[in-house]
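Example record

The entry below shows one chain as it appears in the dataset: sequence first, then structure tokens.
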Amino acid sequence: MTSKPVSTSHSVLSVVALPRDANHYGTVYGGTLMGLVDQAAYAAAIRHARLPVVTVCVDHLTFLCPVHIGDVMTVKASVNYVGRTSMEVGVRIETERLATGEVEHVGSAYLTMVAVDAAGHPTPVASLQLETPDDHRRFAEAQARRRGQLARVGRTAEIHHG
């Protein structure tokens, strides 16, 4: 299986925040943003794998500022790390205040996506070709997160099975 460059996975999703997306304060629901994050991560992972993918884990999602009705929400995603069947996708959420043009960083997330075959079983994906210093940094950070996840899963398995 050949490797694929990070750039082939880049995905950008932009949506205007509408009243149906917001609470009575006029700010967008976190769940709406989470759905957009999952969609952008899905697009990035499937672009890399060219196979069906499923979300296995949302490792981190923090909201730094609100998104208001009328703002443009932009969600950017790309594959940071590839294991045998899994991929970590990094996602950045931004909001553009249309009245001023100001762009703010709303939050970031890391999702683990797994490629699956027709029967729904995990299937191998191409390795990741790192192209830029930023790609190398993100890959190293993703490896560290992966080690932490595996350590947590091992402790959880001990609690449930030990």
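Notes for this example: The helical segments are 30-49, 133-161. The chain has two helices and seven strands.
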